[in-house]
Amino acid sequence: MAYASKKYSFPSRLTESQGISSFQEGREEYYFFKQDLGYATVAEPLLVEERFRLSETMVLFDYFQYTQAEIAVLMEVDPSTLVRWKKDDRLLTKLLTKSIKDMDKIVAKGIRIFGSEELFSTWLHTINEALGAQKPVDILLHPRGIDLVDQALDAMSWGTVF
């Protein structure tokens, strides 16, 4: 089964002052969410100051082709709670925002390794024996999954077949 890929735009509140309209090729750390370095400090490099609204994260979940039930699992809430959050366009916690940014780093790294959104999406949706006969996209739903998929991508970048 082939997965169609789209070219997405950054959330407008993150790009208005910079005039960025779409994703650029290159070695960006993030793919769907551009990092604003205006507040970064050397003392606290992992500090997450901004929080995403649920609507801003849907571009990432659409890329992963997650259902509403899968998004609820990822956010560790009941599906009915997720429906309420969507209606209110809920501001996510800093912890959820960090997890979503980490997933975005996975997308950026995967596209650099595979060369396109479509090829990386195909890998994400293919059962992988090295990851316990699971699809990487399913592993990402769980807290430790981000690290496992990241390690698999690192190994691939060094020539190991996954």
From TrEMBL:
Pfam families: Xre_MbcA_ParS_C. It comes from Mongoliitalea lutea. Residues 111-159 form the Antitoxin Xre/MbcA/ParS-like toxin-binding domain. This is Antitoxin Xre/MbcA/ParS-like toxin-binding domain-containing protein. It comes from the Bacteria. InterPro entries: Xre/MbcA/ParS-like_toxin-bd.
